[in-house]
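ERR on first pass: missing label on line 2. Operator R.T. fixed the label and resubmitted. Corrected input:
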Amino acid sequence: MLKAAWGILMIIEGGYLIPVKPRGRIIRDGALVIEEDEIVFVGKRDEARSKYSSDVVIKAPHHVIVPGFVNSHCHLFQSILKNLGVDMDLVEWLRRSIHPALASYNDEDFYVAAKWGLVENLKSGITTIVENHYGPRGYEAVVKALIELRIRAFLARGIYELNVLLDELREEPDQALSHVESLVKKYHGFNNALWIAIAPMHPYNASRDLLLKAKELSDRYGLLYHTHTAESTKDLEFAKKLHGKTDVELLYELKILSSRYHAVHAVNVTPVEIDMVASSRAHVIHNPESNLIIGSGIAPVGEYLKRGVNVALGTDGAASNNNNDIIEAMRFTVLTQRGFRRDPTIVTAWDALEMATINGARALGLEDLIGSLEPGKKADVVIVKLDEPHVYPVNDPLGALVYSANASDVETVILNGEVVVDGGRHVNIDEEALRSRVGKTLERIVDRARNRFGVRFPFEDYIA
Ligand SMILES: [Zn+2]
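pass 2 clean. output:
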């Protein structure tokens, strides 16, 4: 693996370099110098050449160099369930497709799916991920994949207590919380690259007691609290029936909203609820494609930004996206807001790039380490080529990235100073071998879901 050894520098010569901080700056003929796992220089190529020399030089003349992306919400097991339950609303999609499939995984299946999803995330330029795994099983398998792929990760440990049809996914709160605690003791801070977060799945799936006990645990260990919030109108109806309040009203009243809280989705909110999110300094995790495909709606991102709310970006699980392409998610973020508000200025390409980088870092409390290209920060770097017919010629490199490019244009990904994607391929994963394992794993899962739960997936109606 190509890595800047001790004292030896890696130099990347662009192309365009977008450091993200300061906002609005793009360096033409830029260069980035990395020593070990740290960025030591960001600036013009000529200045870099006069100060540094190295045998390890990556030339990126027709490229844009940006910070590694932060995927602030994902469910890796879904990476092998793409398009399994198409054309359903959120609750129906979960109950008829995702939950029966999830209850049919064994540990090996979780591991294969997580690995496949991580390869896709890394090839999309994602170097930090919030992996929200749920149900009682599979955590060690997911952790194994996270550690093997060396991605920076928060494992948000999901909990279902109420309103879940399958017994296989339901958990006793105390048991689930003590499992979270054991994960914290074992892995929180592991290798300075893996942390645990706590994640009651939706307020309609949790009693007040569970929500509060999760808060206690979050306070005790300083854990992020990561919960699907005000996602679709249907789950909000369930929440109102259970709690007599909407998600945001309840979480505000219980003082769970805080600067460690991730309001995942936060689509269906009133102006008063936007105020509650803003005043409590909670973060919104925006998942534009999943919100659209499930028909949950369009989150009021423009309003959140105006109120100073930190909005980070996620792909969500690949079964409700249906991929992990965060460049595409940036584009959807801008386009949906503009169409929604009939205002071409409400959210800009700069906003979207910040959501996918520094805002994600801020939501995770890692803004001093990652999220921008600055000396002293960790060397998480993405090099995207801009010379294909769907992108070239480049008038505005930021526009080229956000409005024309996609994940397949990511050529090189550097994670903590190591090249992990080179020429668009993961450097130490045999993708063909893994793909064939994925195909077999999915066949087994679909068979088990059919036999155990009598599920019929939509595709079975029209593929003869
Ligand atoms: Zn989700």
